[in-house]
Amino acid sequence: MINLSDIRVALVGVGNCASSLVQGVEYYRDVDESSPVVSGLMHNIIGGYKISDIKFVAAFDIDKRKVGYDLGKAIFSEPNCTKKFQDVPELGVDVQKGPVLDGVAETTMDAFLVDGKQKPVDVAEILRETKAEILINYLPVGSERATRYYVDACLESGVALINAIPVFIASDSEWIKKFEEKNLPVIGDDVKSQVGATIVHRTLAKLFVDRGVKLDRSYQLNVGGNTDFLNMLKRERLKSKKISKTESVQSQLRNRLSDYNIHIGPSDHIPWLEDNKVCFIRMEGRKFGDVPLTLELRLSVEDSPNSAGIMVDAIRCCKLALDRKISGVLTSPSAYFMKHPPEQYRDSTAKEMVEEFIRGERER
Ligand SMILES: NC(=O)c1ccc[n+]([C@@H]2O[C@H](COP(=O)([O-])OP(=O)(O)OC[C@H]3O[C@@H](n4cnc5c(N)ncnc54)[C@H](O)[C@@H]3O)[C@@H](O)[C@H]2O)c1
Q1: Which of 90, 137, 166, 218 could form a disulfide with 240 if both were Cys (CB 3.0 to 4.6 A apart)?
Q2: pLDDT per position in the chain (364 positions), as tens?
Q3: 112 lines ligand 1 (CB under 6 A)
Q4: Using CA of residue 164, residue 168, residue 174, residue 176, what is the dihedral sign?
Q5: Are 217 and 176 in the same domain?
Q6: Would you say the CB of residue 229 lies under 6 angstroms from ligand 1?
Q7: 165/48 same-domain check
Q8: Residue to substitute in 23, 62, 149 for testing ligand 1 pocket (most ligand atoms within 8 angstroms of CB)
Q9: Domain co-membership, 28 together with 131
Q10: Residue 112 maps to which CATH number?
């Protein structure tokens, strides 16, 4: 039976991020509704929607250790390696096989096990059958063709999109137009973690600007041991990831750094780190009297739960847009929740904009 307050979500890619999200929805299921604040989220309730209103109704993957299994089980299948912080019961949703297209890279060929005998389903048809309302794209970085396939399925079946990866959809005017034509909202691109490398680097860049320090050069190097990092060993897949992460920091500066003076990117895969991501940031600048200043920072986080709370809030904002019949790109949620939105704002401004959006004082 469909409950009116249900938010019906389909997942594309049942990897570590999906695991943290599904675990999180279970973790907060019985949270005290009267408490305005819960750890890891913007608000306990958003526009009347509780965390437990999120219902997973469909899931797509290509790995034979996940396809055909209940989502509650598949999230704990290899090669997923993120921290288990919550038991998840069977959810009554079997993971279905999507088309592989360019989802598997040379570097992940041995990590993602594809069984050619399992035939892909018609994703648009499943989305219609399951009455999915929002699809979350958690494909590996560089999945350009696969992303286009799933986004077309959204448009065909009338499903909104939250694009967690750096293939540009919500920041591309052609795709935005397509969502407007179908009266569907879209949030994207490339989810920004709660306290991750991007938000920390952006905040420090803004701090330098606000305190009158001239930033001369900077780098951000990231290492991790999950399949996201394994996939990103393939340099050709990284083009848009690099743009997304670099622009996110550049957008906070008064004067852009030349390409030579800024380097941001994933740098290596270290298997034993598993889902732990370690980030190294260096910033070199000049303060009063052009006296040099150097900042070095090391941040260590469990990668996947870091973006799951952001997604829980993004899902509820997307549902509000569906309720309010707002179509096209949601500028405020995209600016606050995503690294590469169509329009960049300071994070404090973007947060205010999302609060106004939630209260209904701002259309998008
Ligand atoms: N961890 C974060 O906080 C964060 C932040 C920003 C962006 N992202 C992005 O989110 C995405 C997901 O990250 P992850 O850590 O869950 O990755 P992951 O490697 O754990 O999961 C990817 C999943 O996609 C599946 N897959 C591959 N091709 C497919 C296809 N054609 N159809 C359906 N499924 C397919 C794989 O089998 C795997 O289960 C990545 O692109 C990552 O860069 C993550």
Answers
A1: 166
A2: 678 789 999 999 999 999 999 999 999 998 988 887 888 888 999 999 999 999 999 999 999 999 999 999 999 999 999 999 999 999 999 999 999 999 999 999 999 999 999 999 999 999 999 999 999 999 999 999 999 999 999 999 999 999 999 999 999 999 999 999 999 999 999 999 999 999 999 999 999 999 999 999 999 999 999 999 999 999 899 989 999 999 999 999 999 999 999 999 888 999 999 999 999 999 999 999 999 999 999 999 999 999 999 999 999 999 999 999 999 999 999 999 999 999 999 999 999 999 999 999 999 9
A3: yes
A4: positive
A5: no
A6: no
A7: yes
A8: 62
A9: yes
A10: 3.40.50.720
Same domain, 91 and 12: yes
Are both 225 and 185 inside the same structural domain?
A: no
163 in ligand 1 pocket by Cβ < 6 Å? Answer: no
Three-state DSSP state, 164? coil
Please state the pTM of the whole predicted model. Answer: 0.96
Q: Is 1 a member of any domain?
A: no
Question: Is residue 291 a part of any domain in this protein?
Answer: yes
Q: Which of 10, 42, 26 is nearest to 85 (CA)?
A: 26
Q: Is 72 in the pocket of ligand 1 (CB under 6 A)?
A: no
Nearest one of 318, 338, 357 to 168, comparing CA atoms = 338
- Note down the domain range covering 339: 7-192+305-359
How far, in Å, from the CA of 207 to the mean position of ligand 1?
A: 32
Which DSSP helix (H) or strand (E) runs through 58?
Answer: strand 54-61
In this structure, the residue with its CA closest to atom 25 of ligand 1 is: 13
CB 318 within 8 A of CB 160: yes
Per the structure, the count of domains in the chain is 2
Is residue 139 lining ligand 1, measured as CB closer than 6 Å? yes
Number of CB atoms found within 10 A of residue 24's CB: 22
Cα–chain-centroid distance for residue 319? 16
291 and 311 part of one domain: no
